[in-house]
Design brief:
The structure holds two protein chains of two kinds. Chain A is mainly α. Chain A is built from ten helices and no strands. Chain B is mainly α. Chain B is built from eight helices and two strands. The chains are: A mainly alpha, B mainly alpha. Chains A and B meet through helix 2, helix 3, helix 5, helix 6 and helix 7 of A and helix 1, helix 2, helix 3, strand 1 and helix 4 of B.
Chain lengths: 174, 175
């Protein structure tokens, strides 16, 4: 069981092939990778259900209007692609608490859900302030040698490495 | 072909490869941030280095045009660091959270709800920041070759050399 879980493809191979997907997307669709903008669009779409006029007046939702574009479909595709890959090699597993989280913070799924939710708020706020996420700045901007991509990706890792080491301080490394 | 269909197909390939590389897991993401398991870093930079070469060829041949996110250094740094803190807590990024859900990781769904809430929160506060912090250190859509005044291919070659040396070092360290 554990073996089946761990035996994926080499990250160099799967990463290199992802590079090819990036090239083909730029060539055929004239689109660059990104994922966080579509969260703004979907968020606006949900808010619109409750108060349509409010979303129309919002500066931010005017810039990133609630609509289905290439990126929304791409992110939906990620869900499908991951489902297909995991179902076909037996690594699909319903799981509410990741192993490493459980080893540090316990097996309570509610606790994990609350922190995943709070972490998600913080992460998306940061991504939108920065102007994008690892997909947009790494796979979209760094690929085009953008200065913004280098700065933001360095800060993603800097913030993440520092904070992960703070919250896991003293816990076992294996 | 329809642009939306293209997006879906691109995403299916991307999600398939993310899952095959085992990049969508919390343990892999946090393993990298704790400097224990560099799987996601190898995947990420392999994709970037490969993409860099092909996209530069497409730009040079005039097949595609650059679409560069602007450098707003203040917002880039502040937002990047806030993202990093959130990332250390949730253990997924926006793209991989969706991939994690695809392989059955239910906790990613709560993370996705949080991200949607975070986007709504940002939209509320945006008017206060759009002319202040988000304009600090604005440099426009610049690339590294432009500010250094050297050819794209020199920069790409340097990235590839640094990248390969870094990968070699990671393998040697067993990370």
């Amino acid at each position: 069981m554990e073996d089946k879980e761990e035996k994926g493809w080499s990250p160099y191979l799967s990463g290199g092939l992802t590079g090819l997907v990036i090239i083909v997307a730029a060539w055929i669709s004239k689109q660059y990778f990104g994922a966080s903008t579509c969260f703004v669009r979907i968020s606006g779409y949900i808010e619109q259900i409750f108060s349509p006029g409010y979303v129309e007046r919002s500066d931010y939702f005017s810039r990133f209007a609630p609509l289905v574009d290439w990126q929304v479909m791409m992110v939906l595709g990620i869900l499908l692609g991951s489902f297909i890959a995991s179902k076909t090699d037996g690594s699909f597993k319903l799981k509410a608490v990741p192993d490493m989280w459980a080893s540090r913070f316990g097996n309570n799924p509610v606790r994990r859900a609350v922190f995943a939710f709070l972490g998600g708020i913080l992460l998306m706020f940061g991504a939108r302030l920065a102007g994008g996420c690892p997909s947009g700045y790494g796979l979209g901007a760094m690929v085009q040698l953008a200065v913004s991509g280098l700065v933001v990706v360095a800060c993603f890792f800097a913030g993440g490495i520092i904070f992960a080491n703070i919250i896991y301080r003293g816990s076992e490394r294996k | 072909m329809n642009i939306l269909v293209n997006g879906l197909i691109t995403g299916i390939f991307f999600g398939f490869l993310l899952q095959k590389g085992r990049v969508v897991r919390y343990d892999k993401q946090i393993g990298a941030l704790r400097l224990m398991d560099m799987t996601i870093v190898k995947f990420f930079f392999s994709a970037i280095l490969t993409g860099m070469v092909g996209v530069a060829v497409l730009h040079n041949l005039g097949i595609t045009r650059p679409l560069i996110l602007p450098a707003n250094i203040g917002a880039n740094i502040a937002g990047g660091l806030i993202f990093g803190i959130g990332w250390a807590i949730i253990g997924y990024c926006p793209g991989t959270s969706v991939g994690a859900l695809g392989e059955g990781r239910i906790d990613a769904l709560w993370g996705i709800f949080g991200m949607l809430a975070g986007a709504a929160l940002f939209a509320e506060i945006y008017p206060l920041m759009s002319e202040t912090i988000m304009k600090w250190g604005a440099q426009g859509s610049v690339t590294l070759p432009q500010i250094l005044g050297i050819n794209d291919w020199v920069v790409i070659s340097i990235f590839i050399i640094i990248g390969c040396a870094f990968f070699y070092w990671l393998e040697k360290k067993g990370l």
